[in-house]
Amino acid sequence: MEIRSFLPNPAGSDKEGELFSIFNDSESAANLSGWYVKDEAGRSFWLFGQIEANQEISFPLKGSSLTLNNDGETLYLYNPAGSLIDELSYIGKAGEDQIIKKEIEITEEIRNELFESYALEPLQANILSSSAQSPVFLSIIFALILAGLTVFLVNKIPKSEEEELLGEFANESSKPSAEEWIS
Ligand SMILES: [Ca+2]
Known about the structure:
Blueprint: E1 2-7, H1 14-17, E2 19-23, E3 30-31, E4 36-38, E5 44-46, E6 50-51, E7 56-60, E8 73-78, E9 84-90, E10 100-101, H2 108-174, H3 178-182
Antiparallel strand pairs: 1-2, 1-10, 2-7, 3-6, 4-5, 4-8, 8-9
The structure holds calcium ion (CA).
């Protein structure tokens, strides 16, 4: 279970529009009775109802004693046993209608994993291939285009000349020869 987001500074009346949302990140439905949220000032809001697996539920704070500060706030989520399960906070000023959401915390471990698995190896491979392989690849493409053009031209131009020559030859051979005229 986690606090997915909250809206400390809704457009219009804060009392009317403030809300937060809870997300059930477990694989099973849960009964929310007994769960509660506290703000920095220690005011509580008791959750209620049923939440399905992977479901997010919004709780409007209208009519609640819990109000969300517009200049920095923390919401704490407790289970029915009173154990702190999750918290979500922001600092600075909340813009109008700005939704406060959980950001992924980039730890040293995650960053190293990212660099190892995504950044460094493909980058090195790309540098190698772009410096050594792609000129070769480009010249192969260029050679293929040249070869294609050459075949096209060789087939096209000489053929028509050849046909003309053949045609002339055929015409001439059909004419009577000089000897035939004489006889
Ligand atoms: Ca507010």
